Amino acid sequence: MGNRIEKRIELNAPVSRVWRALTDTREFGEWFRVKLDGPFVPGQTSRGHITYPGYEHVPWVAVVQKMEPERLFSFTWHPYSVDPETDYSQEPSTLVEFRLQETAGGTLLLLTESGFENIPSHRRLEAFRRNDGGWTEQMKNIESYVAPGS
Amino acid sequence: MTAARRAHVPVFAALADETRLSLVARLGDGQPRSIAHLTRGSRLTRQAITKHLRVLEKAAIVHSVRAGRESLFELDPAPIDEIRKYLDLVSGQWDQALSRLKSFAES
Lengths: 150, 107
Known about the structure:
The complex is a heterodimer of chains A (150) and B (107). Chain A is of the alpha+beta class.
């Protein structure tokens, strides 16, 4: 276990195709199952609502960070914020990054979601930044320590 | 889920520090240990180690038990187990979304 989620997936489609599926809001909505109100613009809040069956009441709110064509698309959001009664704006936000690499067969997509340890306190945020380095490695070690039955 | 999710925040925060992670690792065998023991081999003072233990205690990752005149600290693996389950849940949702993206982009 780390403080981040990392996924890699090979797509049999050219980088330009994958880039469009990620950044065209209509296409993004198709596979992510969200209906977005407007286009993705770096620095701006993207709003809409989830179309995933059973979660239609859930609003989509993310702040687009970077759009480097066919290379990097990123946004921050509040993961799994599915309770309409809860104001998630004060909760930690995580950073989602999609990185694209051209391969012989098409596109390698690397997804990371990071920042689960962030909390909205400036002093603590600073402390986290300083400690970012050793975290992932350390958590791997800890997992074996605390695994049930060990 | 939401209450549980909110409870994860202090756990993530408490663990986001190398000293505290190493304390958790040292307590990971389930044996209670004294502050003096946990300070041994560390570059930090007893006071600094105590402060870190209090942060872990506040997040319910460790708790202290009295043994005579000493306080011993003991690990409770449940909060760490909980955040692992939470990350597994978010991770599983990404697996599903990316597999939909794959079929979408390849069609």
